[in-house]
Amino acid sequence: MEDIRLNVALLRQRVPHLTSAARSVGLRAATVSNLCTGKIHIGRAEVRTLAALASLAGCTMDDLIIQGGKFEMIETGIKTLDLFAPLTKGGTAGLVARPKMGQLVILAELFFLLRKQGFATALLKPDGRHPEIDDVTEDAEFVCADAEEAFSRLSRIGSTKDVVIAADRSHVTNNEIYRLQDRLREAGVTSLTTLLVDLKGEAVDEELPFGPLETLWQFDADLAVRHVYPAVNAVLSASEILESARADAAHLSVQQKAKRLLRRYKELRFLVQAHGLEALPPQEAQTFIRGELLEAYLTQPLYVAAAFTGKAGTTVALQDALHDVQRILEGAEDHREADQLMYIGQLPH
């Protein structure tokens, strides 16, 4: 039972408007989303849920449930993403954020970093005028006015390069991005990773804003207001890589411990703001301090923002980040102030 997973690609292809379709048969969109990203292992899903999804997709249960295989992670060097919700190579990732929360900065940074790794990067422009994406176009190798242009330019790549394409939610609601994915794969593009953003900020209010995803990055308004960037909510973000049965045990262990710490830290913040740190019992005070350190460590100077922040961009290898987070969890950094860990790469030694 551990080596099975949901056929997310098939669901995307067969059920373009999964949120409304799921509700029409009595399923909670959040449950479907958690099954797709792996937050809920398919072995724990109710049979009626899987049967309903198979019916929606017009397929058999054997088609819907497939052998898990090994997911391949794209290591970006962005600590929060790699640690908590790794990007799945060949999968679809959704960035859920309201405007001004930094999703386009992350998108530009991903383009910048992935081009350095040899990826072909493409941006499918949304309809209408969106000046906010102008900065992103600088780091895209291909800027395509529509799906036809994207197909024409990317289909020539075939299997010679890994491709990452970004699109707005408007291309999801009309199913254009999924038709483009299918056409490109049929044309021989063997490695196609898709990044979905929401320029209007409407996705925050939807339970399943982009349909089935392999990776979900949920942005946090509280972090953005406090200028804690990248403002990605590590607790709510998810990836099927870490939720699968074949996840790296050491990575999963650190991720789960760090999520528990951040979850409790966020709860304690309200108490500390109201009554001060001294009002907490000693054990809870220690939890708060380590959570504060971890939150600070997860900030990172980005290459594409260097001109605005005055800080040179950095990347951190996953194994180095895991080592650093483990030190924070164990209390080895308790002697430091949170400010010392803001906008650094690795921990200072």
TrEMBL record:
UniProt xrefs under InterPro entries: ATPase_a/bsu_AS (IPR020003), ATPase_alpha/beta_chains (IPR050053), ATPase_F1/V1_b/a_C (IPR024034), P-loop_NTPase (IPR027417)
Locations listed in the record: Membrane
Principal subcellular localisation of the protein: membrane
Keywords for the protein's UniProt record, in alphabetical order: ATP synthesis, ATP-binding, CF(1), Ion transport, Membrane, Nucleotide-binding, Translocase, Transport
Highest rank taxon of the organism: Bacteria
Assigned protein family: Belongs to the ATPase alpha/beta chains family.
The protein, known as: Helix-turn-helix domain-containing protein
UniProt source species: Cohnella suwonensis
